[in-house]
Amino acid sequence: MSEELKECPVCNSPYGYASGENSYTCPECGNQWELTASAGEEITNESASPQILDSNGNPLQDGDTVIVIKQLPVKGSSSPIKAGTKVKNIKLVEGDHDIACKIDGFGAMGLKSEFVRKA
Predict the structure, then answer these.
(1) Does residue 59 belong to any structural domain of this protein?
(2) Is the pLDDT of residue 40 over 70?
(3) CB neighbour burial string for 3-18, b if at least 16 within 10 angstroms, e if fewer
(4) pLDDT at 44 over 80
(5) What is the CATH number of the domain that holds 109?
(6) Residue 111, beta-bridge partner list
């Protein structure tokens, strides 16, 4: 069975595969798009970088200051990050831990956006 591959309009990966009738998905960036039947134009349904939200549903951006809302254990450390800890100048990254930051006394680490709120 041979599937026709389409180039992703977001990352230009040549491996976009059919995921429905006139619908394609990119395995590299996760973008989904449709082809219109008339001209073969591509319409993007999902942005390349999904919006990252804090625990209250507020959108986060690079450089924001957030507050940890729950005591978080840290691997390799005897003390946890306490609730109420303010984290300045965050950077949004892709992955399970979608916030990269530096926390005083702990150093560089990744946090999940579900455990922080925007300050």
Answers:
(1) no
(2) no
(3) eeebebbbeebeebee
(4) no
(5) 2.30.30.40
(6) 99
